[in-house]
Amino acid sequence: MAMSGLDIYKLTPKTNCKECGFPTCMAFAMKVAAGGVEISKCSHMSDDAMAKLSESTAPLMKVVTFGKGETECKLGGEIVLFRHEKTFVNRNRFAVLLSDAMSQEQIDAKIANMKNVDYVRIGEEMRVEIAALQYVGNKDAYLSLVNKVKASGLKVAYMLVCPDISVLKEALELVKDELPIVFGADSNNYQEMVALVKDLKLPLGLKAPSLAELYDLVENVQKLDYKELLLDIGSASAREAFTNAVQIRRTALKEQDRTFGYPSVVFVNELAKGDKFMEVALASLFTMKYGSLIVMDDMDYARALPLFGLRQNIYTDPQKPMRVEPEFYPINNPGDNSPVLITVDFALTYFVVSGEVERSKVPAWLGIPDAGGYSVLTAWAAGKFSGSVIAKFIKESGIESKTKCRKLIIPGKVAVLKGDIQDSLPDWEVIIGPDEAMHLPKFLRTMEGIN
Questions:
Q1: Which of 118, 145, 155, 231 could form a disulfide with 127 if both were Cys (CB 3.0 to 4.6 A apart)?
Q2: What is the pTM of this model?
Q3: Could you tell me what percent of the chain has a pLDDT over 70?
Q4: What are the extents of the domains in the chain?
Q5: Which residues sit opposite 66 in a β-bridge?
């Protein structure tokens, strides 16, 4: 059970030194209990008190780390059931399953898709993060598969799905330096599995026929003093998997039972039974409810675009607007005589406006100044999207060296800014654009004399 603020206060030095940033030790203790600050902020806490508090004040869902360098991933650490209560901490990750039962052509095609799906959306790289390598029964083919993926140049972490200890030992030797996930521990082999991963502190995936048996298995593994765990929610049916995912998360966060306080694994490839569209639907469901690691049959752009976009929306702070990077974006291959449009850095505004400009087929530069992540009118009202802000952005962005055109199109809803901008940018012709983005294609084609 989590400790109360009063319990934590009893272990503090009670000096009210204020070095932690709080006026009293009581205020600090209350903030720690609420999850608002780490107990390590108190530099005067005794070692015994720190040891007692460290686990009690940690998130009820453990943070599990795997991968190395640019492939490092973190799962878990969540403290709320719903995003509106407080932002989620570590986004779920997608894995693509490859097995020794697949043909070389199938494996090559999946690797090619994983390499191909790699793009940036609102400053975040979107790609498959994990290669899940499943042992079906052919040891030589499995080890060959591990080597092939390792030599492919894929920027992924590894997940070895293998319940056979002898095969797993050999496979692990090939990628142990990459700190992979080891998946396949059950009631029959968990002791050997723990012994295999304990020194390297690798995440260990646990699997059981039911939630009750999974709970018992977690307790048995914890008795071996190992807590770097992932929990398989089951794949008998989509309904059962969803029920289990919710129950595991509620048990950990609402009932404050750390036995189920670990990230979950969902094999949606098994649940979808070969139906690509069902796989995307289920992956969407478990992105929202509560799949920490989602295993897919494959990941092409048809799957990636909706799933990565959804994940990015779910795993952002609801109190902070999604923003795009302030800069000039080329649309329709603009040249040195293309017009310039300006709008705000609110992500939704950017995607709507850029989409309409692209639909117009008119080459143009779309400028995005730092407007606080607000919509056009909100940013204008807050003073974040003013004539001086726009003029400064134009002068400092380098756009004047990219285009000889001096036509600057501003949103119609802030037509009032035209005079201020014109005074600051006398070499530019400030043009008032339409109020709504949907009218941009006709407006741009008319302005450029295109039928």
A1: 118
A2: 0.78
A3: 98
A4: 5-56, 64-314, 327-447
A5: 73
